[in-house]
Amino acid sequence: MASIQTLSETDRRTAARWAVACAERVLPLFDADTDAQAAVTEALGRAREYSRGRGSTAEEIARRLVAVKAAKSATTPAGAAAARAVGQAAAVAHMGAHALGAAAYSVKAVALANLDDPESADREVNWQLAQLTDAERAALRQLPPLGADASGPLGPGLLTSGVLGTTIRRIQEQIGSTGRARRLP
């Protein structure tokens, strides 16, 4: 049985557009060697094409970790978070819940790049929420609340804590996420 965090292919392609917008906004924070830069830029381009209905889901699933691996080459923590945002956007083809991961890592990148401006993360979340279309909101509302289902990226783990968890919870609250989740025991 597929995870409830997967979403239909149509909903994944819909959510991917927003995930790409979030990640693209922080891409300039990623600085690394030429190969890593190219890998992250290419991953974002593939995710954008996937959101436009091009490219196969299977191909994207096979290549979804390229940007995550490139994040290790980042010269700053903000850059690493930006590359991880791209990695999450590229992984939406695999599982729709990664769209929220892309948004969360984008906020983390902004916060790390603006340590002297504690309001920067809030402004970034507000920008992200303003970018959501009705169709994207509807797709994301189908996802379970963060931490409620263990069968994907929204399960207990990295995305549930710190700025990542705070961001996802805020987005889910703002879009009125009710999810289809069953509560974990």
Q: How large is the count of helical segments?
A: 9
What is the chain-wise order of helices and strands?
HHHHHHHHH
Shape: globular
Query: Spans of 5+ residues with little confidence (pLDDT < 50)?
Result: 181-185
Strand segment tally:
0
Distance between the termini: 19 Å
Give the rounded overall mean pLDDT.
Answer: 91
| Largest sheet entry | none
Total number of domains:
1
SS class: mainly alpha
Strand content: under 5%
Query: Radius of gyration, rounded?
Result: 15 Å
- Percent range of helical residues: 55-70%
Features:
185 residues, mainly alpha, 9 helices, 60% helix, globular, disordered C terminus
Describe the model.
There is one protein chain. Helix 1 packs antiparallel against helix 2 (34-51), helix 1 packs antiparallel against helix 5 (77-90) and helix 2 (34-51) runs parallel beside helix 5. The protein has one domain (9-175). 60% of the residues lie in helices and 0% in strands. The protein has helices at residues 9-26, 34-51, 57-62, 66-70, 77-90, 98-113, 120-131, 134-141, 162-175. It has 185 residues and is mainly α. The two termini are 19 Å apart. The chain has nine helices and no strands.
